[in-house]
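Quick check before the chapter quiz. The format below is the same one you will see on the exam, so make sure you can read both the input and the output lines.
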Amino acid sequence: MRRPTRAAVFSIAAVATAAAAAAALPALGATASGAAPACAVSYSVTNQWDAGFQGGITITNNAAPTSAWNLAFDFTGGQKVTQGWNGTWTQSGTSVNVASMSYNGTIATGASVSVGFLGSWSGANPDPASFRLNGVACNGTGTTTPPTTPPTTPPTTPPGGDTAPPKLHVAGNQLVDSTGRQVVLHGVNRSGTEFACAQGNGIFDGPVDDAAINAIKSWKGVTAVRVPLNEDCWEGLSYVPAADGGANYIAAITGWVNRLVAHGITPIVELHWTHGTYTGNSAGCSDVNATCQKPMPDAQYAIPFWTSVANTFKSNTSIVFDLFNEPYPDRATSTSEQAWSCWRDGGTCPGIGYQVAGMQDMLDAVRGAGAQNVVMMGGLAYSNDLTGWLSHEPTDPTGNLAAAVHVYNFNSCASASCWDSQLAPVAAKVPLVAGETGENTCAHSFVDTFMNWLDAHKLSYLGWTWNTWDCSSGPSLISSYDGTPTNYGLGLKNHLASLG
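Here is the expected output.
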């Protein structure tokens, strides 16, 4: 969608980096002589395979309550953390730091919090000898490392019993997992992270903790969540409140994406709002800042944005990149060819007063960072027009490109005949994901029809949006963050459940 229905009302502050958090945190209070240690840590290797392992850590606070925490320890066997959850993980040499997330920084006296990670090892995998919580030594216990089994695949069950999301790549016109099996994504958009930060309203619009993810998963069949981002907030431009931008925004988004992965959800990370002054046809605002939808991303900030995002998430190909929400250079240019050339090549585009980052530019930034993740690209007319997508497809050395389409009842291409003539030919050549679908009627007859068409073609789709807005002013799937559907949302919920 082009704009949020209302401003955000909920925010979560995030830890900027593990090192900065450690420097800023107070030490735990001292305990009386003979009392329990200020903290205790239980470390366990829960699974191990050739060259890799999964670990879990439980931290118990026996001193005064914390408001934020940092756990430090050292690996002595050359182990490396490759992925972590429920904390911001960093490693320098043998030293590992885990900083609390916005949702688990408070540990009451006597309470515990758990974190987990995947790691690599070679030769030996000894347990860490000591742990320090906010600079204070803790009693630490470790389990005996399980024997190495013959080379196998890493575990597919992250914390909570959820099945890990598949590592994705493109084969022909399908998204497939590491075994070559087709993956069809179904899910929701979780709006808020594209606009709240630029409006001084925090980072999130509503809860994004474990309970919130469980509410999304209570809709049987949801396997993907689209995460809209704001370019200016990610890069910390001066007008964005410091608490909501730069390192704080990046840490909060990284924590949110990692929590989705830990719950078995495929995150689709996308650039929604971008910089650049545009006052032409269908302008959403006259502001140079990323406070509304622009016809195309700007070269000044979008290219470094995607370099940074790719570097942040390139270690996990379960995460999908969606380069730009809803391009509409066709509203600014005179001809369709001009619009499609602007879409792919960027630069100086007719009717757009800033230098544009084309899809090839942003794709090059992603691949230049070494990211192999699947990359989605929407077409013209707010991602509703794919007629020139195949003839203007950017060059990708990895072959991991997918087309994205947005379809609402008020779009031009909103009928089965149009889908057959315009979408089906693209889906025959490359994976096609309906990144947004919905209707503004507070009903679901239109999305029911479109989902049936998508199912018949074995295509992925996500509903807009998992926010508690009034569905009469914009397609909102829920009336409560516990997952209570609106009448419109009931269509998606029941349809996914019917798929088994």
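If your answer matched, good. The two ends are 29 Å apart (CA to CA).
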